[in-house]
Amino acid sequence: MTEIETPAAGASWLPGWTHSEPEAPVPLGGDHSGAGLLLRATRPGDVRELRGGVFEVVFSTLGEPLSLTVTIPATDASAWWRPGSTVPHATIPPSWGAAVDETALRGIPLGALLGSRDVARLVYAVDTGCSETQVLAGLVEETADFVIKIAVGGSGTTGDVRLLLDVSGGTFAQAVPEAGHWLQGEEGHRGAPGAEDAVLCTWYFAHQHVSAATVLAQADRAAAMGFGTVIVDDGWQTSSHGRGYGSCGDWEVTEDKFPDAAGLVEALRARGLRTVWWIGTPFLGYRAKARDLGLTTLRDKPELEAEVLDPRDPLTRAYLVGRMEEIIARTGADGLKLDFLEEFQGAPGSVAAAVDTVSEIVDRLRGLGVEPLIEFREPYVHPEPSRHASMIRVGDCPLNAVQNRVGILDLRLSRPGTPIHSDPIMWAEGDSPERVAHHLINSLLGVPQVSVDLTRLPAGQSEALTFWLSVWREHRDLLLHGRLVPERPELMYPVARVHDGGRHFVARYAPHAIAIPAGDWTELLVANADDSSPILLNEGDEVSAGLEIWDARGRRVADGDIVLASGPHALAIPSGGLARLRRALSSMPST
Fold first, then answer.
1. Across-strand partners of 278?
2. Which pLDDT score, from 0 to 100, does residue 3 have?
3. 63-67, 313-317, 510-514: range with lowest mean pLDDT
4. Does an H or E element contain 223, and which?
5. Which of 302, 211, 212, 288 is nearest to 249 (CA)?
6. Which of 267, 214, 57, 274 is nearest to 150 (CA)?
7. Of 127, 412, 548, 550, which residue is the least packed, with the fewest Cβ within 10 Å?
8. What is the pLDDT of residues 21-40, one digit of tens each?
9. What is the secondary structure of 527-575 as a DSSP string?
10. What is the largest CA-CA distance in the chain?
11. Model's pTM, two decimal places?
């Protein structure tokens, strides 16, 4: 009989991993024996058990690089989850795969090894400030262990590095937000008026053809539909219509398109609408007059017709901050959409300098008497820079409802409490009201941004948009601040629930059954973004309720009573429609 030597725990082939300084065990102690959790590091760590199976380890790096390895048996593992609208959710990568850049302008160093029944086998998060951070996570084929290797560069590591490891066996929907809270601390974002209002963005329907006339043409309809903010996107600073970023850097309003920018802001404000200007923050375009000022740049981007400014240079930073202050001072606008901040990465100290630059911009705008709306987007959603933002948006995904849904839910979980916005929702001219409704339902658990020409919508599309925006506004507090429980992340969340007390809202995105809440629920709303009718599954006693159903255009199609005996029940909610069940007092559990 041939004997096969068992590889050492954590042994793996890592062809692309160059951080090879010897690591020593870091004893965790506490309650993790059943999980088989192991930690090794190049420096000793101070270990504290926050609660059963949840550990915080603090490493004093003193500006030196740090390498960590976390190992756990992959028992019952089903997928490796990381937050992000473009991140694969249904895979267990191999340990010999590529490392991921999780430096502060590129992502969030947080992840979860998922097990069956939406249990989190392991959740990790690491706080490295603005230091370069590389994470390689994957399955060790030789041992069926899952390994997470973290390399923290010395540059920018002026304080401690903190590591969180959670093997408590909690649910994914509970453990990930707890790790997010731990990572971001008390100040996850900066509150600002209007951060949770629906947004009309000009980009997808106007691009660089945007003008004051274009914006004003939308204003009355936008206000009537319930939008609270208008983002005037790329194009206000240039007479060009050819895309590219060659006009960026001067940040002066083009008068042939916007002859009275302050007047436009005031006209929108009179209708109850805030104004936010788009800024291609790092770019110094080839056609910008500011190229003659001697500003320092990090690199050239010829494909974008621009260079990237260097925020480490005091003169360059002062220029950029001053231009942001002047556009708000001159126009009276309510905030800025700071785009492309990830481009500031790539040079020693540039990430920290970019974060400081954003902080200075916010401080200067506050000095004008404004608590500014500041929008960030993926991938710069890490708490270190985005604590200065008032809202975070899913990355660009035109016409992609699924990516919007995944991005919103991922960011809601990993950045708890922060207003998470959809990428501006758009649809095709010939799309049905049901498809429009699907787009809106997929963004229901975030703040909807929309980018369509409201003046050209067919009646059915307009009705669907109006109806679902009204549903979102009516239930906004529940949708944004109730307890969020998205199901099956490895299937891209086919069902997502939110509840507060006895009120429950369920968004259904695939042909999955909907379990009726246990206990003394009072109201259940079901939004149907699938072409099939849902099945309600009553796993308890008989329930009587009032039932209302609306179609995708907001037309009531049912209004009566329903009795739900134990077992499954078909509920005829049209595609893109909504059902509301209000429980009869007579069927409430006795106390």
1. 337
2. 47
3. 63-67
4. helix 212-225
5. 288
6. 57
7. 548
8. 789 999 998 665 568 999 99
9. EE-SSSPPEEEE-SS-EEEEEEEE-TTS-EEEEEEEEE-SEEEE--PPT
10. 87
11. 0.95
Residue 9: burial class (beta carbons within 10 Å; 0-12, 13-18, 19+): middle
Q: Which residue has the higher pLDDT, 243 or 405?
A: 405
Token pair listed for 452: 């369509």
Beta bridge partners of 275: 230
What's the pLDDT tens digit per position in 107-150? 999 999 999 999 999 999 999 999 999 999 999 999 999 999 99
Q: Which of 404, 405, 374, 410 has the alpha carbon at shortest distance from 391?
A: 374
- Tokens representing 8? 């050492």
| Separation of alpha carbons 34 and 43, rounded Å | 26
Query: Does 539 have pLDDT greater than 70?
Result: yes
pLDDT of the residue at 478: 98
Name the token pair of 363.
């401080």
Q: Are 390 and 168 contacting, i.e. CB atoms less than 8 angstroms apart?
A: no
Burial class (CB in 10 A: 0-12, 13-18, 19+), 255: exposed
252-311 per-position pLDDT tens digit: 999 999 999 999 999 999 999 999 999 999 999 999 999 999 999 999 999 999 999 999
Q: How far apart are CA 42 and CA 69, in angstroms?
A: 9
Side-chain-side CA neighbours of residue 42 (13 Å): 18
Measured distance CA(24)–CA(67) in Å, rounded: 10
Only one residue has tokens 């006009």, namely: 247
Contact assessment for residue 394 and residue 408, using Cβ atoms and an 8 Å cutoff: yes
Q: Residue 219, SS3?
A: helix
Cα 57–Cα 60–Cα 66 angle in degrees, nearest 5: 85
Tell me the three state secondary structure of residue 81.
strand
What phi and psi, each to the nearest 5 degrees, are found at residue 558?
-155, 145
pLDDT in tens, 465-508: 999 999 999 999 999 999 999 999 999 999 999 999 999 999 99
Query: Is a pLDDT exceeding 80 seen at residue 154?
Result: no
DSSP one-letter string for 264-277 = HHHHHHHTT-EEEE
* Residue 11 pLDDT greater than 60, yes or no: no
Rg (CA), the chain: 25
Burial label for 332, CB within 10 Å (0-12, 13-18, 19+), is middle
Q: Please name every residue paired with 355 in a beta bridge, in sequence order, or none if there are none.
A: none
Element (H, E) at 525: strand 523-528
Residue with more model confidence, 12 or 455? 455
Total length of the chain: 591
3-state helix, strand, coil in the chain (%, to 5): 25, 30, 45
C-alpha 388, offset from chain centre: 15
Q: CA 92, CA 321: separation in Å to the nearest integer?
A: 43
Confidence (pLDDT) at 7: 47
Nearest to 334 by CA among 469, 477, 199: 199
Q: How many CB atoms lie within 10 A of CB 370?
A: 18
The answer to whether residue 62 scores a pLDDT higher than 70 is yes
